[in-house]
Amino acid sequence: ILPWHGPAVSGAALSAVLFCSSGIQLPMRSVSPTLNSRLGMASLTGSVACLAASLLLHSPALFLVADLLLGFGHGLTYLSSLHKVSGMSGPAQRAGLLCSFFSVGYLGTIVPILATGLLADHVGVPDATIVYSLVFTVSTAALLLWSLRVFQKR
User: Fold this and answer.
1) Cβ neighbours, 10 Å, residue 26
2) Residues 94-98: what's their mean pLDDT?
3) Is the dihedral of CA 44, 47, 49, 51 positive or negative?
């Protein structure tokens, strides 16, 4: 969907995600982890919906919006999760808990990527990306609704 191709383009897209992710964490660190989590999940949901729409509509502008929303969502959910996990234990257990957090987090990142890659081998990259986007959109929307319900009772 972009008029340019090559490693510089994918590197620029990934850099934008990571810059947005790190850039949002500093100003949002004083916001409650629950609100950051909800904003992050909403941003991630919007991101993958925009990604699928950008593929279907061949829209570079929607791809850029998806990229930026992904960065903000990643930063907010990462900040929120890390804050909640580090507060769940005392100093003696914190290292082990954070190690587990990062291990599960990286596993949760790579498994969908590998699954999408395997699917792309059979149906092509655009269709596999749309399937990934649909599954991710439904998953994050469900988590967001669940969190609204669970934390509303508290």
Assistant:
1) 10
2) 88
3) negative
Instruction: Evaluate the CA torsion angle 121, 126, 129, 135 in order and state its sign.
Output: negative
* 21 C-beta neighbours (distance < 10 Å), count: 20
**Residue 137 CB contacts under 8 Å (≥ 6 apart), including other chains:** 45, 48, 49, 52
Among residues 75, 76, 83, the alpha carbon closest in space to that of 17 is found at: 75
Mean pLDDT of the chain: 89
Helix %, strand %, coil % of the chain (to 5): 90, 0, 10
Tell me which residue has tokens 């003696």: 92
CA torsion sign for 97, 98, 101, 107 is: negative
Per-residue pLDDT band at 105 (split at 50, 70, 90): confident
Beta carbons of 72 and 40 less than 8 angstroms apart: yes
- Give pTM, 2 decimals: 0.81
Pick the closest to residue 70 from 108, 34, 21 (CA basis). Answer: 21
CA distance 73 to 137: 13
